[in-house]
Amino acid sequence: MKQTIGTILGLILMTSTSCAQQTMDIPPNATNNLKKFKLKEKFVEDSTIFYPGIGDPKLRPILTQKINAAADDFEKVTKKDKTTAKDFQQKIKTGLERFSDINLDTEDRERICFYFEELMDIVGLQSSDGLLNTFMYGFDPEKAKQKE
């Protein structure tokens, strides 16, 4: 009986430990690279990703401010003691919601996603957990595949 209880407790402990969020190792140059990211001119033509530049130049400072706010959010998360992927994913969600009041064309939406991917690379985040797909397409194709 004691052995059975011990086994059950061990399984519970292993299960709860595996469900806990793993802390991330933030690259040592992340803060500096986030600052450099904020200084870059944004929403300009970029032939490497076939981006023609922003359709309405009046939107450039507005969109730049919003994406730089996301970089600020990421910088705050990097300063936490135990940072998890979920912490950054929550900031991605918040950052993308900042664009909800603006009618964006497809190229500008894609460019915003590329900027978020750049932020993810800076901090070593592997996945947006479908948030970028949902922003771009209105749903996450990966999650749609899993339901099939």
TrEMBL record:
<protein>
    <submittedName>
        <fullName>DUF4844 domain-containing protein</fullName>
    </submittedName>
</protein>
<dbReference type="Pfam" id="PF16133">
    <property type="entry name" value="DUF4844"/>
</dbReference>
<feature type="signal peptide">
    <location>
        <begin position="1"/>
        <end position="20"/>
    </location>
</feature>
<keyword id="KW-0732">Signal</keyword>
<dbReference type="InterPro" id="IPR038360">
    <property type="entry name" value="DUF4844_sf"/>
</dbReference>
<dbReference type="InterPro" id="IPR032301">
    <property type="entry name" value="DUF4844"/>
</dbReference>
